[in-house]
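SAMPLE LOG
Freezer: B-3
Tube label: C17
Construct: single chain, 538 aa
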Amino acid sequence: MVAKVLAVDNDPFILEFMKDVLSPGRYELFTANDGLEALDIMDKITPDIIFVDLVMPNIGGKKLCQIIRGMERLKNAFVVILSSAIGEQEIDAEKLGVNACIAKGPIEDMARHIRWALESPDIATLRCARGEVLGADKNVQRRITNELLSMGKHNEAILEAMHEGIMEVVSRGRIVYANPMCLALLGIPERKLLGSDFFQLFSETDQPKIHASCRKTVETKSLSPNCLVRINDHELILRILPIKNQGGLSFIVMLQDITEKRRMETKLVQAKKREALGTLAGGIAHNFNNLLTAIQGYVSLLMLKDGLGQEHLDDLWKIQQCVKSGSDLTSELLKIAKGDGQKLRTTDLNGIVKNSSEMFGAGNKQIQIHRKYQKDIWLVDADVGQLEQVFLNLYINAQQAMPDGGELFLETENVTLDEKCNPSPGIEGRNYVKVSVRDTGKGIDKNIQEKIFDPFFTTKSMGSGLGLATAQNTLKSHKGMINVHSHSGKGATFEIFLPASPDQLIMENRLGERRMPVHAPFFSWKRETGLLGAAGVY
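STRUCTURE (predicted):
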């Protein structure tokens, strides 16, 4: 049986030498000038034996060995390092998956060591594992090589410590280097990334921009302007620097993750919007209510006049309804602007969800409501009226997303934020009560999900766009938060998180078990007495 041999070396003399050493009747030789070319060859064949030089352009020997051992079909290949730099580099044969190490030296000695390693692979592997390098006694360490390798290690340490992703891409668009930050941003293991097509990492939308940046940087021979791209939900700034070397043109690609920065900028913009809205609402509320009061007064006077027909009375009644809607709108604006007037009490969210959903369900028989309550739900400190309004807003949104009817799923759950979700900035503590409101409606497009909590944003022809903005503001004032998960055509899920009451947690820590809520009649911290004082909470 003829064994397939792959020799990887950027020295043409060594590749010719391998042809003379290996008998054509026993071995079929394939050659590659660098690690990148070797990967191309290994895509087409499965070599039995691989000789690898350590110092090569476009993926060095160590990286190539690691990639080889990461390929399932090459796990049994016999890998030999054949390099003159083996004396200047530390080789961890087990980590690299190397079977033998041979130092370049006199032709006769190299040929003898190569033939012996191929004829005695088990012994060669055992000696390699002990750190033995065949031909090391004839290998002369070169000071210039040692200095260059030391400089390379220094530069590599800097690249690995950088907070920017760094890649090297050769002119054919193949990736030959990536630092740890780059691998983390891309979420791709090094052995799979090296040798892959750089442009295929990006979406079809971003690819034309990147091609244009490459062309521009070649023309100007300088660092390209910032190019905004997206990978794996990361928003990145991409910059490209052309590098001319002996092998032709390559590119250094720098990736800076600005996802968190953009998120904070968005939060700042939203905060400024709310501040502006608060100023606006406070300024117009008084005058607006005066106008509504005047309109209501004139309508009331007109309705007292004799001789008005039913048609006119109906029109006046409609005006009254419009006045009431205007008054409700003013109240919503003031809630967003001030978020005050809360009457907090320690309460059970199961009861609030039950009462609000039954109220909603009574007038919406076409929607089937499913409820799942956590047993021994943690108590929360909340304004019951405000929270009922939050849930009703969510139910109404769900009903509008299901005009022909559908299903509404409500669920309460005790959670710890580090396990169940990614808490928003400013959210403190770990123990929260989560309420999920899920519908089977048309869902929310991903491109507008970040806008749905903005004041006055609405997709409805008739709507104020204040329902979700009010809900979010109410929950923030309760030190809670709201998240949304949705795909177009697949319904939407709103998740509300409210912090467990400190009284609840203190009580559980002291007693070690579930007790009556602190506001219940006859509740006492002392087991031997029952006091009525706490009943006055209401």
